[in-house]
Design brief:
Layout (H helix, E strand, L loop, with lengths): L1 H70 L7 E7 L7 E5 L2 E3 L2 E12 L5 E2 L4 E17 L2 E12 L5
Antiparallel strand pairs: 1-2, 1-4, 3-4, 4-5, 4-6, 6-7
């Protein structure tokens, strides 16, 4: 009986060491996989944040253009713009030429003429310019994880006072 007891006592420290190595390896594998999932989830959250911010910026451009239309149709001209706040609070927002940079984003608003055919339908080309309708194209661009991203919204607006 003493023989068995001494044999068991000699193998127990070796088994404890083997169990410890297996447990550490298992924890390392779980930690590595968990870290990969954590990193991926951070990238997904950042991309969602960028997309949401870009949507807000592009929508803001359209709303400002509609606001300018409501102030007076003659304030709209064909071209590419962004908005700046006039120092005079009574004036509000005004058009400035070209795109603007807002943090990591670039945005612009393009106002284009609209053509209509003889039936009054909007056509891409070959019609007559409708002086009471414009096409607004708001664009926000940015780089996400080294890839270019873009949100582009279109909206037709009319001089509703002329109807």
């Amino acid at each position: 009986m003493t023989f068995h007891k001494s044999k068991i006592n000699r193998t127990l420290p070796a088994l404890n060491l083997l169990e410890l190595v297996v447990a550490v390896a298992f924890i390392a594998i779980i930690f590595t996989q968990g870290f990969g999932v954590f990193t991926l989830s951070l990238q997904v959250v950042d991309r969602a944040r960028q997309s949401t911010m870009a949507e807000l910026l592009v929508q803001d451009m359209l709303e400002l253009a509609i606001s300018k239309r409501n102030e007076g149709w003659t304030s709209l001209e064909v071209g590419t713009y962004h908005f700046i706040e006039d120092p005079d609070p009574a004036v509000g927002w005004v058009f400035a030429a070209g795109p603007e940079t807002v943090g990591e984003f670039s945005r612009s608003l393009t106002i284009s003429e609209v053509q209509r055919d003889a039936g009054g339908n909007i056509v891409a080309a070959g019609g007559t310019v409708d002086p009471n309708t414009f096409l607004l194209e708001a664009v926000t661009t940015w780089t996400s994880q080294a890839f270019p991203e873009e949100i582009r919204l279109y909206q037709y607006i009319t001089d509703w006072d002329s109807f």
